[in-house]
Specification:
Belongs to the TRAP transporter large permease family. The longest helix has about 35 residues. The radius of gyration is 22 Å and the shape is globular. α18 runs parallel beside α20 and α19 runs antiparallel to α20. It is about 80% helix and about 0% strand. The chain contains 24 helices and no strands. By secondary structure, it is mainly α. It has one domain.
Length: about 450
C-alpha cells in the first residue's frame, strides 16, 4: 500500500471519527499520530513530531490575537452593545419596507465588527430582535430566520475567528485577511438588505402575518422618536471600537495582536462606563475567554500535527498533480473545492471543515496561482453557508434553543433562511470569479 493510499484512508477515518462524535482535536491528534507511525514505521518519530508540534505550534506572538479578540467580543456582549445597536437601527430604519428585518441585518453587521463570532450574534439578537419583530407583525419563523441568516456576517466581517484560524493554517497575514473580508462582508450585508426588501414586496405573506396592518403601522407617524442625545450615546461606543480596531489595522498603525489588545481595552472601558461589569461577570468573562481560547489553540496545534502527517504522506503534492493533469484551471478547482466545502457544511461544523481541508487545499491553490487571501475568503464564505444548512446548521439551532418557542420549529427556521442562503451563494460566485473584490485594498 502506497503512502498516498494511506493518506486518503486516514482522511476518511478522520471524517468518520468526527461524524461519530469524537472531538475534532482528539481525532486530528489520533489520525496524525497513527499516520506518521504507519508511514514511517517508527512510533518514536510520531512521539517526537508530536513533541515538536506542541512546542512550536502556537509559540508565535501572533497567536495572542485569539484570546484578545475573544475577550473583546465577550466584553462587548456583556455591555449590552448589541441591544443598543438594534434599537438605534430600528429607530433609523422603521419606515423602510421590512424595516425591522433591515435593522437586524444592520445591527448584525456593526456587531460583527467587534465580536467575530456568529454564535454570539445569533444568541444576542434572538433575545433582542425576534420579540420586537414579532410584536410588529412579522412572522415568528421569519424573524428567527432573519436573525440566523444575518448572524453569519460575524464569520466574514473582521475581526473574525474563522479568518484568524484560516490565516494561521494557510500561513498568510491575519491583518491582510481582515482587510480582505471587508468588501465581501459588505456585499453580503447589502445583498441581505436587497433580498429582504424584494421578498417583502413580492411575497409579503412570507414575511408578515397581516401585511396590510403592518403597512398602516409603518406609515403611522404617531410614534415618539428617540431623542438624538440618547441615539448618539447608544451608537458611539461601538462605532468608536470599530474605528479603533479596523482603522488601526487598515492604516497599518496596529498589528493584529496590538489591535486585539486595544480593542479589548476599549471594550473594557465601554463595559465599565455602562456599569454592566461587576466582579462575578468579570470572572465569568475571563473564564469564558480562557476556555474558548484554549480550545481554539489546541485545535491549531492538532491541525499543525495533521498538516505534518499530510506532508509526510505526500498528499498535497499528489492531489495538486491530479488537479493539474485533469486539465482543471484555477476556477475549475475553486468550483469543485467550494462544492466539497458546501457538502461538508451539512455534516460538520465550520472549524472542523477548515482544520481538515485547508492544510490539503491551500498548497494546491497556491500551486495553481490562486491568491491565498482570495482563496481564504472563498473558503470562509462556503463554510458560512454550512451554518444555515440542515442537518447541522448550528446558527439555526442556536436561534431555536435561545428562542425556546414551541410554536416555532427548527424546520420553519431552516425554511426562513433559504433566501439568505441564495444570497450567500450569489456572493460566493461573484467573489470566486472576481478576485478584485478581495484584493482591492490589499495590493
Amino acid at each position: 500500500m502506497t503512502t498516498l493510499t494511506i493518506g486518503f484512508i486516514l482522511i476518511a477515518v478522520l471524517i468518520a471519527l468526527v461524524l461519530l462524535g469524537m472531538q475534532i482535536a482528539y481525532a486530528l491528534f489520533g489520525v496524525a499520530f497513527l499516520g506518521i507511525w504507519i508511514i514511517r514505521g517508527n512510533i518514536d518519530l510520531s512521539f517526537r513530531m508530536l513533541e515538536l508540534t506542541a512546542y512550536s505550534g502556537i509559540a508565535d506572538y501572533l497567536f495572542a490575537t485569539i484570546p484578545l479578540f475573544v475577550l473583546m467580543g465577550l466584553l462587548v456582549s456583556v455591555s449590552n452593545v448589541g441591544r443598543d445597536t438594534f434599537e438605534v437601527a430600528e429607530e433609523l430604519l422603521r419606515r423602510m419596507i421590512c424595516g425591522l428585518g433591515v435593522a437586524t441585518v444592520a445591527a448584525n453587521t456593526i456587531f460583527a465588527a467587534v465580536t467575530g463570532v456568529s454564535i454570539a450574534s445569533a444568541a444576542v439578537f434572538t433575545r433582542v430582535a425576534v420579540p420586537e419583530m414579532t410584536r410588529h407583525g412579522y412572522r415568528p419563523a421569519f424573524s428567527a430566520g432573519t436573525v440566523a441568516g444575518s448572524s453569519v456576517l460575524g464569520m466574514l466581517i473582521p475581526p473574525s475567528l474563522l479568518l484568524i484560524i484560516y490565516g494561521v493554517l494557510a500561513e498568510v497575514s491575519i491583518g491582510g485577511m481582515f482587510i480582505a473580508g471587508i468588501i465581501p462582508g459588505l456585499m453580503l450585508a447589502l445583498g441581505f438588505v436587497a433580498m429582504l426588501i424584494g421578498i417583502t414586496i413580492a411575497y409579503p405573506g412570507f414575511v408578515l402575518d397581516d401585511p396590510d396592518a403592518v403597512r398602516e403601522r409603518r406609515l403611522d407617524s404617531g410614534f415618539e422618536p428617540m431623542p438624538l442625545k440618547e441615539l448618539v450615546l447608544k451608537l458611539v461606543p461601538i462605532i468608536l471600537l470599530v474605528i479603533l480596531v479596523l482603522g488601526g489595522l487598515y492604516t497599518g498603525f496596529f498589528t493584529p495582536t496590538e489591535a486585539g489588545g486595544i480593542g479589548a481595552f476599549g471594550a473594557l472601558i465601554v463595559a465599565l462606563s455602562r456599569r454592566s461589569l461587576d466582579r462575578p461577570k468579570l470572572w465569568k468573562v475571563m473564564k469564558q475567554t480562557g476556555v474558548i481560547s484554549v480550545s481554539i489553540l489546541l485545535l491549531l496545534v492538532a491541525a499543525s500535527f495533521y498538516s505534518r502527517m499530510l506532508a509526510i504522506a505526500g498528499l498535497p503534492n499528489a492531489i495538486a498533480g491530479l488537479v493539474t493533469d485533469s486539465g482543471f484551471g484555477p476556477f475549475g478547482f475553486l468550483f469543485f473545492y467550494a462544492l466539497i466545502i458546501l457538502l461538508m457544511g451539512m455534516i460538520l461544523d465550520s472549524t472542523s471543515i477548515l482544520l481538515i481541508m485547508v492544510p490539503i487545499a491551500a498548497p494546491i491553490a497556491q500551486g495553481l496561482g490562486i491568491d491565498l487571501m482570495h482563496f481564504g475568503i472563498v473558503t470562509v464564505l462556503a463554510v458560512e453557508i454550512g451554518l444555515l444548512t440542515p442537518p447541522f446548521g448550528i446558527s439555526v439551532f442556536t436561534v431555536h434553543n435561545t428562542l425556546n418557542d414551541p410554536d416555532v420549529s427548527v424546520e420553519q427556521i431552516f425554511g426562513a433562511t433559504l433566501p439568505f442562503i441564495a444570497v450567500m451563494l450569489l456572493v460566493l460566485v461573484i467573489v470566486a470569479l472576481v478576485p478584485t473584490t478581495v484584493t482591492l485594498f490589499l495590493y
